[in-house]
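Field log, afternoon session.

UNIT: design team B
ACTIVITY: writing a sequence onto a fixed backbone
BACKBONE:
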């Protein structure tokens, strides 16, 4: 049976989709290309999957469309579609967060309710902890989100688990911690830092740069998602998925300067509302039940993201000059 991946054109969803396809799994991918970043970027993420014969793309908005037919035909739903991003969840944009995170999840759960043997793995977030009770943070810590985004991710997580308690659905929640790697969303820190550094533009540090994150490499997140789809103990559980490397923004910038071979120009901006000071995952439960072992060191993962960014920029330059040549020859 195919796996259903919602948010398949996104950063993490596109990596998961490719990993499943390359292991011979049929995949139905759903995405509506919401406007958090460019459609071209998301189409590029999907390029390899679209060329694969085992992949079917369904351009549906989960908050509106009906996915029951696809849920019925799948034994696992990986639910990654969402409005992500902590800092942009204030003000008028909150409605979009409610719609794409809470309403969309409820629609998907209603479709799954009629097919209780289909497992649903939900992409939750470290943002449900807010400024956490303790570090490293256990799954049992009281959630107290610090951003509107975190509230919507927690609400959707509760929905997943209450559908388990009411209807015995096989729902699992994975709390990812600041994920990075090739295709990282353009609003996220590493992506912004690397492009600015390669352009010779200033890098913007929000706050004093002493804030820390348990940065997690995207392939490790994909491994955790796949393990959660298989493990017999997973239904009804919440697992932290962290990278095992807690680093400050200042430290990340030192690593980037070292890799690029010149100092970065730094501009400081005030810390933004919704940003917590620290995150740190206790991953013992995922280690014990999902055999989860983060494999990438921050240095190695960052270096892969840097190489990918350099190649992407070269491709974009080539595409632009090809289209300039084509338009000149048409004149
Ligand atoms: P992303 O924006 O790259 O991918 C999300 C995808 O979902 C996008 O392609 C978007 O078009 C799609 N989408 C949004 N609303 C939709 C809807 N109503 N119907 C259909 N498709 C819709 O984000 P990402 O960074 O890959 O995040 C994936 C998931 O992981 C999200 O649920 C996010 O909250 C969660 N998460 C991400 C991180 C991280 O560091 N990136 C950390 C914790 C949790
Ligand atoms: C990330 C994702 O964006 C969320 O979708 C996700 O839910 C969250 O991780 C999570 O772990 O739950 P965030 O930790 O803010 O959120 O990730 P980054 O954008 O990589 O930011 C990391 C740090 O860099 C933050 O402290 C931020 O303030 C800082 N930053 C970011 C800067 O100093 N400058 C920038 O230009 C961007």
């Amino acid at each position: 049976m195919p796996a259903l991946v919602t948010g398949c054109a996104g950063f993490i969803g596109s990596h998961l989709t490719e990993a499943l396809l390359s292991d011979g799994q049929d995949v139905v991918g759903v995405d509506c290309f919401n406007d958090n970043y460019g459609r071209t970027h998301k189409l590029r993420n999907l390029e390899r999957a679209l060329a694969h014969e085992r992949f079917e793309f369904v351009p549906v908005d989960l908050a509106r469309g009906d996915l029951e037919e696809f849920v019925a035909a799948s034994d696992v739903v990986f639910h990654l579609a969402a409005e992500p991003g902590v800092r942009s969840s204030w003000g008028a944009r909150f409605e979009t967060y409610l719609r794409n995170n809470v309403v969309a999840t409820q629609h998907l759960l209603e479709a799954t309710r009629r097919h209780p043997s289909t497992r649903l793995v939900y992409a939750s977030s470290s943002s449900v902890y807010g400024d956490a009770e303790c570090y490293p943070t256990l799954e049992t810590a009281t959630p107290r989100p610090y951003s509107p985004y975190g509230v919507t991710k927690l609400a959707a997580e509760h929905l997943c688990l209450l559908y388990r308690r009411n209807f015995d659905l096989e729902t699992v929640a994975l709390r990812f911690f600041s994920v990075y790697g090739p295709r990282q969303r353009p609003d996220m820190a590493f992506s912004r830092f690397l492009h600015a550094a390669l352009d010779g533009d200033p890098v913007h540090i929000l706050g004093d740069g002493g804030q820390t994150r348990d940065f997690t490499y995207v392939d490790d997140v994909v491994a955790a998602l796949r393990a959660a789809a298989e493990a017999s103990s997973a239904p009804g559980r919440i697992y932290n998925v962290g990278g095992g490397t807690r680093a400050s923004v200042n430290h990340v910038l030192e690593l980037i300067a070292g890799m690029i071979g010149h100092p970065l120009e730094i501009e400081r901006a005030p810390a933004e509302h919704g940003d917590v000071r620290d995150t740190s995952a206790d991953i013992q439960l995922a280690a014990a039940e999902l055999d989860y072992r983060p494999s990438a060191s921050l240095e190695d993962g960052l270096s892969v993201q840097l190489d990918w960014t350099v190649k992407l920029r070269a491709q974009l330059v080539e595409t632009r000059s090809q289209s300039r040549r084509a338009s000149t020859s048409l004149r």
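LOG NOTE: The chain has a mean pLDDT of 96.
NEXT ACTIVITY: expression trials, pending approval
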